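User: I need a structural model of Oxidoreductase from Bradyrhizobium diazoefficiens for a docking pre-check later this week. Nothing fancy, just the predicted structure tokens so I can convert them on my end. Input:
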Amino acid sequence: MTTMTPDAAGLAALEARLKQDLAWLELPAKSWVPRRVVDGKSVVDVVIVGAGMAGLVASAMLRRLGVDNQLVLDRARAGEEGPWVTFARMRTLRSPKELTGPAMGMPALTFRAFYEAQYGRQAWQALDRAPRTMWMDYLIWYRKVLDLPVRNGVSVERIHARTDELFALDISEGGTSRQILARHVVLATGRDGLGGAYVPSLCDGIDRRFWAHSSAPIDFERLRGRRVAVVGAGASAMDNAAMALEAGAARLDLFIRRADIPRVNKFTGIGSQGVVHGFAGLSDDWKWRFLDHTLKAQTPPPRQSVLRVSAYPQAHFHLASPIDDLAVAGDHLTVTTPKGRYATDFIIFGTGFKVDLALRDELAEFAPHIRFWCDRFPAPDGMDNAELENSPDLGDSFQFLEKEPGACPMLARLHCFNYPATLSHGKLSGDIPAISEGADRLARGIVRRLFVEDREIHFANLKAFATPELAGDEWQDADVTHQPAE
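Assistant: Understood. Predicted structure tokens for Oxidoreductase:
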């Protein structure tokens, strides 16, 4: 794959076809939302925070529906949005290559079209899964061909609710701070979008030179010749273990809490359009039942990721080995599990993410008012699940709901289009398979609200519209030209 030369002419031909497809479908739709100016500032209809895959397809879907007064803000440099070339460390995506992802139902916008245009159909048939960095290339191309309004190097520091039903966003860009006004804000902020990395408390007080979370920048070359431990059995844990081994780690200890590595991908296994569109229609107890079972079964790491680790003789899998204690012992760490004690020089926690609004300064004003599932839904007997209990309780267009009705009405305009939305909507906002369907649900809800709010303007436009389609000379009144018989 790395030796193939992409065909620029093929990609240009695909772009021409996509342009024609959009023209035939009259997309994007004409702009229709009335512009606003408040306090001398132009108001943005929708600000999307995050220009990863979810943010891009949310923007694209809004433009498709005629909402063009929008911004997509990302603090990363262009081409480094999302995890794909930062902390994602797998060789290929975990999803099947055929998934259409953010293509919004358009064949010419799929990853397959992007790949085949450059390398041909035979290469596509030989491809197992999409190379991780090529998926990033695809998203960069997606952004370019759809001309999405992304601004990089912009951090959203704080979001405020104004009394005039607008948001004021404090943003930092290029070392300067300013404020922008918006009617709706979409948080397309990924796995840690409502919190941050989860690390067990046993790390408290241990110098950071000894450990890192799998989502952090890690200098793997520094681990050459050293003893490395990894905690977890998920895909991220395996990928980080493999990176350490490939960098020349002298020993790799993989500590896994379970007595066996999960082998069955439950939710993916029952994936269908029924699940995509029907999950949100389930009763609360059925939503909980589905996801509690899925989370407790856990998602297995891809087979190739495990083989990537086990190919090294210095890799050691420790099953039924939760870490009971972690202590500094001079220039290294001592890891204690029920099976023994192990010396290691550096430990990586592939332990996922947590919802914790205290870690999101931008949401400080809203945090006390956001309703979570634990605020209104008691876990069924035998199904206690902290991850589900800490999931935000969302409305039908991913908007936050109030813990106390009337206490923070602006939450209805603040949308959670990231991974923690799963319990309310299903897997529509954090993974590749149904991201277009999620963006469609999000965008239609925002469009509906924008139109209803501006109903007086639209009705005035209706009354004022006076462009005739008939001139009046297309017919004659029969009663004028014809006299009735005596």
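Before docking, keep this in mind: The domain at 9-194+355-453 is CATH 3.50.50.60 (FAD/NAD(P)-binding domain).
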